[in-house]
Amino acid sequence: MLTIQALHKQFQQQEVLQGIDLHVQDGEIVALLGPSGSGKSTLLQCVGGILPPTSGQIFIDDTLINGESGHISYMPQHHCLLPWRTVLQNVLLAQELSGTINKEEAAEWIERIGLGDYLHAYPHEISGGMKQRISFLRALLSPQSLLCLDEPFSALDEITRHKMHIWLLDMWKKRQKSILFITHQIDEALFLANRIYVLSDRPAIIKAEIQVPFPKERTKELLETEEFFQARTQLLNLLME
Amino acid sequence: MNILKKYRITIGFLIALLIIVEIAVRVLDLPIWLFPSPSVVISELFQTFDELLPHILATVKLTFIGLIAGSLLGFIVGILLHLLPIVHKIGYPLILISQNIPTIVLAPLLIIWFGFGLMPKVVIIGLVCFFPIAIALLDGLRQTTPELRQYFQMAGATKWQQFWKLELPFAMPALFSGLKIAATYSVMGAVITEWLGAKQGLGVYMTFAQSAFRTDRVFVAITLIVVLSLCVFGIIRLIEERFVHSYKKEEPQHANNSSTP
Fold first, then answer.
1. Which domains does chain B have, with CATH numbers?
2. Nearest residue of A to residue B252 by CA position?
3. pLDDT band at A218 (very low <50, low <70, confident <90, very high)
4. How far is B162 from chain A, CA to nearest CA, in Å?
5. For residue range B78-122, what is the model confidence (pLDDT) as tens digits?
6. Phi, psi (5° rounding) for residue A174?
7. Yes or no: domain A2-72+144-240 corresponds to CATH 3.30.390.10
8. Closest Cα in chain B, distance from residue A63 (Å)
9. How far apart, in whole angstroms, are the C-alpha atoms of residue A71 and residue A64?
């Protein structure tokens, strides 16, 4: 799906990414875990094609995409819904940008995530969690097969965030896509991802690649298990090193 | 009825003001040619309305042609300045200069070049009106939230898509602020151009009234100009309410802490 080889990114004299190698397989959820300011967003912007890498290659399905946008679908940290568009029109936005609109399907999905009543509501009329779900749905329904999430739930409160995690896994089961997401929250990375790349401080290198040892079906009971706690401690130590 | 209710304080104040002026004029016993009382102005307005109507219609027509020409010009200039940096560098100083040439000086020149027809008048009103629209639109386009801009880029939007689907809708409220300012200028502009040479119009009527020391008619003209300005402004407001009703600005993009996801 996505392959990144020896990616370097430098701003003037400052090196931000120092040789990143990573890959995402078809239908996999991969987390990029790192402290704030470690260059996670820079990496995502390179994948999105809005920052050209200083050196290194980024491939999607064997096509080199260095500096080319439009190959991924994207969910930003803040929902970025357009205030003058209704919920439905906002979901359709990403499809409009890439040229293939499927209104019925979009309406059906909004119905399916329980927001059918809000189809024609404006963003200021719905709650923060709903906006985040619409933002995710917008990315999910765009035609690109790799979904990049930029700290997608960091602006939400803890209870809402946890509900969103369970909801996201449920969505992902219904519409298999490859997902690459960045986060600074260990729990979020462990709960959602199949694999985790741990990034170091600036300049960022990949400190470790961790296969998450939990089954694909995840429920909130997982958070209370001994294994989860151990994995969490291990990751925390890795990050603190 | 709703409008009356909404503006009842404003209207009440205006009426009170008129009554005070009326009393003052009567107590001081001012002659009509010096300062006509509101009641004289109003009765003059109704008595000569048939005579006035062609003047009013001429001014209305001129105002609308000028405002529409100016708005189109302002819209195009604003967009060009935004999209093409080279146009911005060359054009911005020119636009500022165009606003610093006094209309009174410009008008005779335009009459020399274009004659006494409609053309020089529309050019003057257009020049007066396009500036607030172009500047407001340009500012609106520039103020597009960086986060939304970045989202569009990451999602693979072309420059053109970014303009049509993000920047232009984002600038609509600013565009309407500019339009409202232009609307108030447009009636003034029309009257001024009529002073400089026309067969009909409130400006012409005013000049005649003034030279005949018919101060009451000067006030009739002023009243009509004010009413006309308010009407043009009101029309822009109505259009704005239709098109921009759903633009309610959100607080800066934080997700609110809602516990119902």
1. 1-30 (no CATH), 35-243 (1.10.3720.10)
2. A78
3. confident
4. 9
5. 999 999 989 989 988 988 888 888 877 888 888 888 888 888 899
6. -80, -30
7. no
8. 16
9. 11
